[in-house]
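Run log // design_07
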């Protein structure tokens, strides 16, 4: 698609609502850069685990905050299509950050204000020139409140759990549906109720319910919105 302006497209929504797949496909069609901010929070959770800062079900928060300067996250060159691996201090951590262990821990890392400040700064730097599709929980509300197009994705928890189960199976992890549902519900609860940039639908976001639309319907609907904004 020929674009006059390079937009910032903010996509927020619940865990496993299909945000990343949609954002990636949208970025591909528009020739934009896709930025998965959830991966960045997962990257910090991974740093926490490999450095022994998560033991007996608790995060050593002060020690983690002191060591945040050692966390250098960036997205590497694409491996396939628009898929850019997350690098932690130069090492590809794309696969380990998707494990159930990291999924169980990441919301707790994401409530730490110092972690959020660091990642929000980095996300703003990544998006300064526009031409990006960024997905997360606080993109339209905090990272880019001035984004030209904001989407808020929802889907019922059953559908989201099924989607997540298939993703995990593809990676060889066979996790019961009920366990996945509990993880999603717990993450939704923590993400929506935290005091620091909670997940919320801002008033100028367009809501997309992915349980009632096919994937191509979702992409079509959003491309129409992009055209309206771009050529307005
Ligand atoms: O999108 P995801 O499920 O990979 O995100 C992992 C966690 O990171 C999620 O539970 C909440 C947190 N997160 C956040 O707090 N803010 C963002 N912008 C993105 C993710």
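design_07 sequence
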């Amino acid at each position: 698609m020929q674009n006059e302006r390079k937009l910032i497209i903010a996509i927020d929504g619940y865990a496993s609502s299909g945000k990343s797949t949609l954002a990636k496909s949208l970025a591909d069609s528009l020739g934009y850069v896709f930025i998965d901010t959830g991966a960045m929070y997962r990257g910090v959770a991974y740093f926490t685990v490999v450095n022994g800062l998560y033991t007996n079900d608790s995060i050593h928060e002060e020690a983690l905050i002191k060591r945040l300067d050692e966390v250098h996250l960036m997205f590497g060159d694409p491996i396939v299509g628009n898929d850019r691996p997350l690098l932690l201090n130069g090492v590809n951590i794309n696969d380990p950050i998707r494990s159930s262990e990291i999924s169980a821990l990441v919301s707790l890392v994401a409530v730490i204000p110092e972690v959020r400040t660091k990642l929000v700064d980095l996300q703003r730097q990544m998006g300064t020139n526009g031409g990006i599709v960024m997905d997360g929980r606080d993109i339209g509300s905090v990272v880019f409140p001035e984004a030209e197009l904001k989407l808020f994705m929802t889907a019922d928890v059953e559908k989201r759990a099924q989607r997540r189960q298939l993703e995990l199976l593809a990676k060889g992890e066979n996790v019961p549906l009920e366990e996945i549902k509990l993880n999603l519900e717990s993450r939704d609860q923590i993400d929506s109720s935290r005091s620091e940039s909670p997940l919320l639908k801002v008033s100028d976001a367009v809501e997309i319910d992915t349980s009632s639309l096919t994937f191509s319907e979702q992409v079509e609907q959003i491309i129409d919105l992009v055209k309206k904004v771009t050529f307005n």
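Residues 15, 37-38, 41-42, 106-107, 110, 136-138, 187, 191 surround 2'-deoxycytidine-5'-monophosphate (CB under 6 Å).
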